[in-house]
């Protein structure tokens, strides 16, 4: 202790200042290094649409590139460590991580093979995460490792499978249209081939999948009532009433018989299927399962897009929670874009009606095409290839461990 104290006492104010400057300089150098690393890679660009006139050509080029990766031996797996890898760490797993990122073009080969997780590696990890629908925070957790360890051959087969899908939609989609990519849980409003706005979405659970479809948006319903589908009555509402007898009352859901007469919940036998014979309708309001807005798009599946009171779910990477419909984040922005060419519905009017709480319908002057697609691999004109989990098992390739988590 005395020696340490003496050593500290022997430091002059000038030497202390020099050390502080050196420390500051190192930190600044590190920060500048990250900025430099970020400029050496290309992140996915927000203006490129998942489905546009250029998609087929871009996917075809990606297939050629991945054929080259496979012919060179693909890439090696990254070992799964016990702890997360992050900026500033030294770990023997960083070397294999660098090699893996280089193989897929997420890291410049000039970055070397050091076992230090520097700013170049962090930038490469962020790029990889963004391409795979993982929150791009630059931290390597188990979910990121799972995605890294999907073999190049599997990714090539994914691209080939999705090439057939996007080629089948290679015709004219419209000057303005909406695309929901189900595996990506993402919605894009597209105008003249460019993304006008992109929205995080919540789509169907694997056992209640959102359907692939083409339809037209005809109407926007503000503060709608919600008629509970028969499937939800059986799977969700009856079990809820068995465990929580006041569930309907709390959530302002009314029961009606075939003649339209309202029934009190306590006269229904909730231990069987009797309730499936009735209609259930939820009042507008904060508790309404559709939130404040429903985007109406008549189709054989009776699904639609809507707001939701459960906005916390938008923060998850795995957003497969609905019973088939699509919940949309920042739905007001989307609705303002949808109604842009409909007289009497400027953005200010949209906001005013939402604030009023009134039940109002806005009929579009011109129906807007909407496409719900199942695309787990695609590419953009900038050469960036994106992959998503095959959540519904439709790809017909080897099972892929979830890249979330």
Write the layout of secondary structure elements.
Elements lengths: L1 H8 L3 H27 L15 H17 L22 H10 L15 H13 L10 H7 L3 H16 L8 E6 L4 E6 L2 E11 L8 E10 L3 E2 L2 H14 L3 H4 L2 E4 L5 E2 L15 E4 L10 E4 L8 E2 L13 E3 L3 E3 L2 H8 L8 H10 L3 E14 L3 E3 L5 E3 L18
Helix pairs in contact: 2-5, 3-7, 4-5
Walk me through this protein's architecture.
The chain is of the alpha+beta class and 405 residues long. Among the domains are: 76-145, Muramoyl-pentapeptide Carboxypeptidase, domain 1 (Orthogonal Bundle); 158-224 and 284-387, Beta Barrel (L,D-transpeptidase catalytic domain-like). The protein has 11 helices and 15 strands. It has helices at 2-9, 13-39, 55-71, 94-103, 119-131, 142-148, 152-167, 230-243, 247-250, 331-338, 347-356; strands at residues 176-181, 186-191, 194-204, 213-222, 226-227, 253-256, 262-263, 279-282, 293-296, 305-306, 320-322, 326-328, 360-373, 377-379, 385-387. The strands form 3 sheets. An 8-stranded mixed barrel has the order 1-2-3-12-10-9-4-13. A 4-stranded antiparallel β-sheet has the order 5-8-6-7. Helix 2 (13-39) packs parallel to helix 5, helix 3 (55-71) packs antiparallel against helix 7 and helix 4 (94-103) crosses helix 5. Mean pLDDT is 87; it is low at 1-39.
Brief description of this entry?
The chain contains eleven helices and 15 strands.
Helix-strand sequence:
HHHHHHHEEEEEHHEEEEEEEHHEEE
Under CATH, the topology of the domain at 158-224 and 284-387 can be stated as L,D-transpeptidase catalytic domain-like
- The share of residues in helices is 25-40%
Strand order of the largest sheet: 1-2-3-12-10-9-4-13
Using the coordinates above, name the CATH class of the domain at 158-224 and 284-387.
Answer: Mainly Beta
* Fourth-level CATH superfamily of the domain at 158-224 and 284-387: L,D-transpeptidase catalytic domain-like
- Percentage of residues in strands: 15-25%
- Individual helix count: 11
C-alpha geometry: globular
Total strands: the figure is 15
Q: What's the alpha carbon Rg, rounded to whole Å?
A: 26 Å
Category from helices, strands and their pairing: alpha+beta
Biggest sheet record: 8 strands, mixed, barrel
Low-pLDDT segments, ≥5 res? 1-39
N-end to C-end Cα span:
46 Å
CATH architecture of the domain at 158-224 and 284-387: Beta Barrel
